[in-house]
Amino acid sequence: MTVFAVLICLRCGNQTRHRLVKPHGACVISFLFHSVFLFTFHITSTMKKRAVDSKQNVESDSSSDDDSSGEDEEYKGGEQIQVDFEGRIPVDSDFHGIKQLLLQLFLKAHVNLSDLTELLIKQNYIGSVVKQCDDDPESDDEDDMNVDDDVYGITSVVNLTEKKSMQCVSQLRDLLKDLSTKHGDDRTVSKVNQLLDDDSHSVGLLINERFINIPPQVAVPLLMNLRKELEKAKSRKMPFDFHYFVLICKLYKMDHTKKKSKKNKNKEAEPEILWSNAEEEVFLEVADCSFEFCVKDDSDSALGGKWNESDSEMTPWRKVLIFPASKLDDVINRVTNMLQQ
After folding, report:
1. Are 303 and 252 in contact (CB under 8 A)?
2. Which pTM value belongs to this model?
3. What CATH number does the domain located at 82-136+147-259+269-340 have?
4. 186-197 vs 167-183: helix axis angle to the nearest 10?
């Protein structure tokens, strides 16, 4: 399996994608942008107190050109930024960060994202948000005010069966039925209606969202922690004993048709697929059914279109996966193995 990372150059804002080679455990993944910034991720798969540790080093290896702008002339090079991330329990101050992550997933869908965000925060015994950690417990209050409190990701579950009386959950259920009818085959439509109309089969919406330049290695400890929390909740007779999960994935399709040679002009090229969260391709392997749809008209993401003149057209899509909850352990093991290859 080929894993891609999409990263953003801090200097010029351009985006590019790179294949990851053996992105496992504590290995180092490096990318060079315009011979200016070197991005290095040190990823660990250990979680302590919901900690998802990663370090991001940014440094420069070149000086400014004589023709550079005034802003470029101020750049001295050799700068280094180190960021540590950890998983935390969602709190009220995370509201806007979580809602923004949900917005990049649902776009213009008719779902009350404010209510959905509040639900995720309220059930703080399930799920984690990825935030920058403060490694200095002795820092004073003034320093604490300067700590980056942005939310970089969220992994959680919403009960689509037990919470169906809530407006946002009812909207999610209607959305899934409507989308499956428009884009799924008869078997998929039947499966979706069966699961959502039969309260004896508890269905959970698995939310696995993060900034696009956060590597897939963080998914393993987050999913393992979520699994542990679900088991603990079930042991306490809480409504988190799911039969099925629904996962909405973000992906992009690259159209290579304009690059076909004259010899192959009658042969239709298959679009290359780029998964925003690389580990979610593994979920497809265990899914009972799935369907996908284009969101080009709904998306205002900078990832749409072309990143460079030589790139093929990038079109945003969504893929909905429905898989048995009993397969979650298997998926986590497969993702772990994928990142170790």
Report:
1. yes
2. 0.74
3. 3.40.630.30
4. 160
